[in-house]
Amino acid sequence: MDRTPEADDAAQKKAAPIELVGIRKQYPDGTVAVGDLSLEVRAGELVVLIGPSGCGKSTVLRMINRLIEPTAGKILLDGEDVTRVDPVQLRRRIGYVIQNVGLFPHQTIRTNVGTVPRLLGWSRAQVRARSDELLDLVGLDPVQFGRRYPQELSGGQRQRVGVARALAADPVVLLMDEPFSAVDPIVRARLQEEFLRLQEDVRKTIVLVTHDLDEAVRLGDRIAVLSQGGKLEQYATPADLLGRPASSFVREFVGADRGIRRLAVTPVTRDMLEPLSGDHDGYPEAELGSSLYDALAAMLVTNSDHALIAENGQPVGLLTRHRVLSIDYPAD
Ligand SMILES: Nc1ncnc2c1ncn2[C@@H]1O[C@H](COP(=O)(O)OP(=O)(O)OP(=O)(O)O)[C@@H](O)[C@H]1O
């Protein structure tokens, strides 16, 4: 989507940066869930926390909105130390979406979405207008769904209501803990797509926890890989993480099929192309900037060794199957 710098500025003001400085969480029984973690998340950035079960991902997330109090360290939201802010006030600025959504079963969808605006003392008319606007934004018709109860919705629809509710008071940060894991893989892929489009519009600062590397690669601007005790193993863009794992832990974590995953985050660029020559009838087409994965898939489906690459509909060169399969892997 094209955005003017002014529109970007306006959007950015609705999001705030987060900085974790040496945070630690030791539970009363002595378990060190997070030892010493520092991480900065830029305003409007979507950062994914990933790592093996029990490595401290949820603990980190819940320290940001103070559902869990850190044992040491600082968490700065827009430069302000969150431990000095009243937790209730803080949570109104931070949307929180969890796996099973946690909708109130005896309230209608519209009432569920309006929860925080109501707490903030908005008028009935304002709350209703905002709820309907949000339902629309997440692709649910307010007329059709507004008066239903949560159990009258599918899992995927409930998940969208959870996102709408978290966005209702226009928070500066959205925390999401396994938001899409309760739905089947097809619905999940659709929700992820819709969510990315939504993020284009709202540009919140988002910290999302997942177990699913494909989800991390698809959604994250940057991915933080954690190991036990909340140790930060690598913090990088999806392409960097897959292309240059920083340690043997990360290499193992991203798995043997990282090459294929990497194709999905590497765009077709001009320097990969061979000049146009002769007859290219029958070659599959792909756009410059589309992923190598999509270009390769088109070649495989048509059993062709070449794809015709176009920019704005105009052919600009040829990509070969060999070139796709020989993208560089910097020495690990
Ligand atoms: N209240 C508690 N008391 C003691 N230990 C706890 C408590 N809550 C969590 N832990 C421990 O802290 C560690 C981190 O837990 P956390 O839930 O943050 O991990 P996670 O990475 O989100 O795990 P998962 O992916 O399985 O959800 C785990 O070893 C967990 O057993």
UniProtKB/TrEMBL annotation:
The enzyme's E.C. designation: 7.6.2.9
Record-linked Gene3D superfamilies: P-loop containing nucleotide triphosphate hydrolases
Domain ABC transporter: 18-254
InterPro entries from the UniProt entry: AAA+_ATPase (IPR003593), ABC_transporter-like_ATP-bd (IPR003439), ABC_transporter-like_CS (IPR017871), P-loop_NTPase (IPR027417)
SMART domains: AAA
Any one GO MF annotation of this record: ABC-type quaternary ammonium compound transporting activity
Record key words, sorted: ATP-binding, Nucleotide-binding, Transport
Pfam family, one: ABC_tran
SUPFAM superfamilies linked: P-loop containing nucleoside triphosphate hydrolases
Family listed: Belongs to the ABC transporter superfamily.
Protein name, as recorded: ABC-type quaternary amine transporter
Source species: Phytohabitans rumicis
